[in-house]
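FAQ: What does a ligand-bound record look like?

Like this one, built around flavin-adenine dinucleotide:
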Amino acid sequence: MAPDKISVRCCIAGGGPAGMMLGYLLARAGVKVLVLEKHGDFLRDFRGDTIHPSTLEVMHELGLLDEFLKLPHQKVYELNAQVGEMRLTIADFRHLPTHCGFVAFMPQWDFLNFLAEKAARYPNFNLMMQADVTGLIEESGRVVGVRAKTANGEIEVRADLVVGADGRSSIVREKAGLKVKEFGAPMDVLWFRLRRNAADPAATMGRFDSGRIFIALNRGDYWQCGYVIAKGQFDEMRRQPFETFRAAIVKLAPYAKDSVQELRGWDDVKLLTVRVDRLLEWFRPGLLCIGDSAHAMSPVGGVGINLAIQDAVAAANVLFEPLREGQLAIEHLRRIQKRRELPTRVTQGLQVAVQRRIIARVLVETEPLKPPLALRLLAKIPFLRRIPARIVGLGIRPEHVDPALAQE
Ligand SMILES: Cc1cc2nc3c(=O)[nH]c(=O)nc-3n(C[C@H](O)[C@H](O)[C@H](O)COP(=O)(O)OP(=O)(O)OC[C@H]3O[C@@H](n4cnc5c(N)ncnc54)[C@H](O)[C@@H]3O)c2cc1C
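The answer part, i.e. the structure of the complex:
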């Protein structure tokens, strides 16, 4: 059967934070846009549930903040860590020059559903779930559309611009033959939930101990936990009795000694493979990549969603007029990469430095850990905590919605 054919101005592959925000902004500006998302819903776990002050500021600029904050969330005003026996605060978001001096922890599906619901008000917006982009359509060296498998068969979408927002295993960037620079990562993360009891500590906490790193995010009635392991170590761990893993968690989080028994085995633990990479060129004629598709982010600092949203805002600011008028040129795509490459380079540079200098060392350390000088200074001089807060909460070059786009 011949595939169904659809024609839009902009076709976005991937309905994650980058794709949904860009789709929403373009539709709001009057551009006919189609987002193709391969899953049937946004209800996936393990994707990072942090909404940063810069994203909350974008919501404010769009007039959506008050309604958005009515969704259930936890406000995190500071980031805390325990290194060896020393507890310290490493970032304080309260002083940021934004409407919200906190990170909102919210399940990512709530955030994406909210954007989908708001976008659905615009007749130009279309979201197709269970639409798996499988290839690009090219004519004379230009990308002119995509092919996708849907629940109802194959479709062909023609568009002035195809945007790859399909995450770190992007099929779009692979099919486009865009060159990738890999930075490597010494670790992977085991991701799981533990029940949270009323007597448990309240703080969202990173715990660094010799040979072990454990992150516990307070999500109200449960802890979202990340247990950092050396890359490739998971197979060896799975050969050990599961009890060994439970005991390792309790050593780092004694309050979890009962709830850890509720983990039934390795099936309750998800391996998240960490990678850090960046495209040399984020575009080709008719095609642009943004978010993790252009630059896969490490979980260090929990800033990947922030960057994905910032990319979407920067892209929408540049693209909404030329796409609406049918006058898209390669220069527009170049301008987006130019604007977003510096923040990406700096952020990834910091992440790679933390991975190599701190995480890789902690994972092989056998002696009791002492906090490095930089952390001891943060503990002693509260003013300094504003620096990491700025890097994590706002990012290197915070984007603002173009006033013409912000007005409905
Ligand atoms: C262990 C770990 C923990 C992390 N924790 C955090 C955190 O706490 N905070 C934070 O800010 N960042 C975190 N990150 C990074 C963050 O997950 C990413 O940087 C961010 O999700 C990127 O957003 P995106 O929209 O570019 O891509 P994604 O969120 O990956 O979204 C891509 C979307 O495209 C869809 N898709 C993929 N292929 C196709 C296809 N062929 N056709 C159609 N759709 C497709 C996917 O289903 C998905 O919905 C973490 C990363 C890791 C590895």
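Follow-up question: can I read anything off the structure? Yes, for example: The pocket of flavin-adenine dinucleotide is lined by residues 13-19, 36-39, 47-48, 50, 132-133, 165-167, 171, 189, 272, 274, 291-293, 297, 299, 302-306, 308 (CB under 6 Å).
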